[in-house]
Amino acid sequence: MGVELYVEDNFYDLSLTNSVNIDESYTRITAETWENWFNRWLEVLQPDIPAALGYEIGLRLTDDSEIQELNAQYRQQNKPTDVLAFAALEVDFPHSEEMLDSVPLYLGDIIVSVDTAQRQAQQQGHCLTTEMAWLTAHGLLHLLGWDHPDEESLERMLEQQVKLLKSIGIAIDKE
Description:
Blueprint: E1 3-9, H1 10-13, H2 31-45, E2 55-62, H3 64-75, E3 83-87, H4 97-100, E4 105-113, H5 114-124, H6 128-143, H7 151-167
Parallel strand pairs: 1-2, 2-4
Antiparallel strand pairs: 3-4
Helix pairs in contact: 5-6, 6-7
């Protein structure tokens, strides 16, 4: 099992027009680090996800302006948000075992606003890298069918995110 990860780091292309100062403790997370995190997270989640030869995920790091456009277009909420997830799997997704043994299973795309992540990291009192991992783990869970329409399901999802971050060596206390 492995993950094919496509990282688009649009945020840094737009950083000259960005109004948020990036946390100096944040060093750009490399594609290799992202891939290691996703591989570890998928190992942790393995009992609850479709078995496949591998998995494919798109990750786009962007700014508040672009994520606001996407949020308005796809969720009819004309405001920035921290993370969006566009899941490719459906509950009745047709797939054969032969297909899953020959090609990676495309899970979908995760989009994270580094602007919002920076503000939230400051509010939570932790570094930007921790917040980026937190938001991306949240997006991954959405790709795998998790949702939080009520307080009880949100609590279960947050507990799972804490577990995922611990698996990559990040301790976090989220409420």
